[in-house]
Amino acid sequence: MSRPDTSATRLTVAELPARKPYRFDIRPDAEALTALIEDLELLALRKLRFHGMLEPEGRDAWRLSAELGATAVQPCVVTLEPVTTRIDTPVSRLFLRDYALPEVEGEVEMPEDDSTEPLGKEIDLMAVIRESLALALPDYPRADGAELKNADFAAPGVTPMTDADAKPFASLADLKAKLDNRDDET
């Protein structure tokens, strides 16, 4: 009897064992890493490993419990220098056959439990990896010591706009305060 491929990323639900956990250990190849780097706008991605198991829950649900580990390199939001981040995060999903988004008067509302997903004919573990990695990455990575200082951008011969110029109501508040002070003096 042949052993199942535990590194497959696209699993057909009908072929999963119905009564015992399906264990997986995925270390994407260079092509898959390149696709993730492009999708997530990273500079590099190393040591990516996604391992865990899928367990049947009744006849119409599968629970995924896994660990995602990776080393990602992103550009610093201030200097664009490479910023390396180590990610080690648990991942859990519940795939339900009768999944339905809650609807409120014609609008779709996000459910409170964001780990629940619809169960189709396949479970795409690469999609789970992509989403989990995207959520775990820092939104605004900064290189050590990088700080945003005042920057003046204007065409030659033009006075650059300041923060005070961008707040026109601040000058109205100052004018009101002066008028209020003048009224108090009289």
From TrEMBL:
InterPro entries: YceD. This is DUF177 domain-containing protein. It comes from Roseovarius faecimaris. The lineage of its organism: Bacteria, Pseudomonadati, Pseudomonadota, Alphaproteobacteria, Rhodobacterales.
